Amino acid sequence: MVVSRELIKELLSESDCSHNSVKKSSCDKPKPGSTSGGCAYEGAQISLFPYADTVHLVHGPHTCLGASWETRASMTSFEGENNIQLGYCTNITAQDIIFGGDKKLSEAIEYVISKKSPQAVFVYETCVTAMIGDNIDHICKESWERFGIPVVPIHAPGFAGGKNLGSRLASESILNFLIGTKEPETIHAFGVNLIGDYNVTGDMWQYKSILEKIGIKVISTLSGDGRIDEICQAHRAKLNVIVCAKSLITLCRKMRKRYGIPYVSVSFYGKRDTSSAILSIANALGSKKMIQKAKAVIQEEEEKLDKKLEPYKKILEGKKAILNTGGNKSWSIASALQDIGLNVVATSINKSTEEDIAMAKKYVDIVFKNPTADQPKLIDEHGIHILLAGGRSLYTAIKKKIAFADVNQEKKRSYGAYNGLINLAEDVCAALSNPVFKLVGKKAPWES
Ligand code: SF4
């Protein structure tokens, strides 16, 4: 697979992204002078890393490996050797740059297959190995034939673009090398693929059982708790479900064209969005019986949730919050926070796509782009009680003596679907009642 200018252009101007029909605006074009928030290789590795039955082999210097390895708590139920506990790298040196790293890569593939017995090997190209021109495609093909398991080249060198593009490029490899390579024993009438949920802290498990309850079978996932064997059969699903990941819309458009599989885009954060996601999936599968069953399950789950949320809602009444996550979380987490009774005053649209921004505006009145400047100002102007963001914003909360909760990918508990909402309410209430945020903002006794 060649990462040509045409392919990158196509991936950055996705025809199924609604903003591209209005004005041709790149989905993830790095802006000169601003950091892109992670390179393409990082994006590729993040989107494929949850395949625990696969060895993820980075062909590059070991510093590349560290850039994205284990940055998310992706959970897996895989019972064999969990290959995402270890990082694998060819550790390219100056010598390899001069003489080429082909031999080293070939030996590394042989080593991991003989020692780890994975279901597949993903070989990630990085800036260095792309520039020295190692023939990764040839080595992968040769190793695939020699060992009889998929050895898949992932061409997303860092210089190609940002994380979002990397995840698109990774999905190209999955589409071209794996999907459609195995036929299932039986074809399920209501089989779906879950695309773009990485099962961070077990988010996917919160709603997978609900889907099964109404008769839907998850054929494969890309890539939370995923298996290589299953993604090879993904072409026999009846529906692709994009979960909070617009970057994978190109894959779904191509699967619609190649295999006739339609897709829906949903979010499983918050009560309203979870219910509407379940209903959208049932509607798209088109069975009247299933839609009725979905409605009954939604009602039952919502009633259970409302009862459990009651005590938390009393605590959260009148509390104002600012959300600084960006991406699709700018609206999906905002919706979840509103569902537990918080007043979300503003949300950051940093790294959000045009669609995400439009969605964020539907949920929250104020959207902001520059957290460093806007956040402190908004906290003062609106008398904010809690800041919900990634770890780096903790210091803003401490300076402003307000509560803080981490809702980014570094979060420790699942906030997905109905049950995750209870975790979110618990964590927000715990942060609001934690005296530490007021204490650390005070002067030391000897300073007064
Ligand atoms: S930008 Fe290039 S060198 Fe840096 S981490 Fe990404 S692939 Fe590696």
Please tell me about this protein's structure.
Helix content is 48%, strand content 13%. It is an alpha/beta fold. It has three domains: 5-24 and 34-177, Rossmann fold, CATH 3.40.50; 191-302, Nitrogenase molybdenum iron protein domain (Rossmann fold); 310-439, Nitrogenase MoFe cofactor biosynthesis protein NifE, C-terminal (Rossmann fold), CATH 3.40.50. The strands form three sheets. The chain has a five-stranded parallel β-sheet, sandwiched between helices. It has a four-stranded parallel β-sheet with strand order 2-1-3-4, sandwiched between helices. The radius of gyration is 23 Å and the shape is globular. Iron/sulfur cluster (SF4) binds at residues 39, 41-42, 60, 64, 67, 126-127, 157-158.
Summarize the structure.
The protein is α/β, with parallel strands linked by helices and 448 residues long.
Question: What's the helix and strand layout?
Answer:
Blueprint: H1 5-12, H2 18-22, H3 40-48, E1 54-59, H4 62-68, E2 88-89, H5 94-99, H6 102-116, E3 120-125, H7 127-131, H8 136-147, E4 151-154, H9 163-177, E5 191-195, H10 203-213, E6 217-222, H11 228-231, E7 239-243, H12 249-259, E8 263-266, H13 271-285, H14 288-316, E9 320-324, H15 329-339, E10 343-348, H16 354-363, E11 366-368, H17 371-382, E12 386-389, H18 394-400, E13 403-406, H19 417-433, H20 436-439
Parallel strand pairs: 1-2, 1-3, 3-4, 5-6, 5-7, 7-8, 9-10, 9-12, 10-11, 12-13
Helix pairs in contact: 3-9, 6-8, 9-12, 10-19, 13-14, 14-19, 15-16
Iron/sulfur cluster is lined by residues 39, 41-42, 60, 64, 67, 126-127, 157-158.
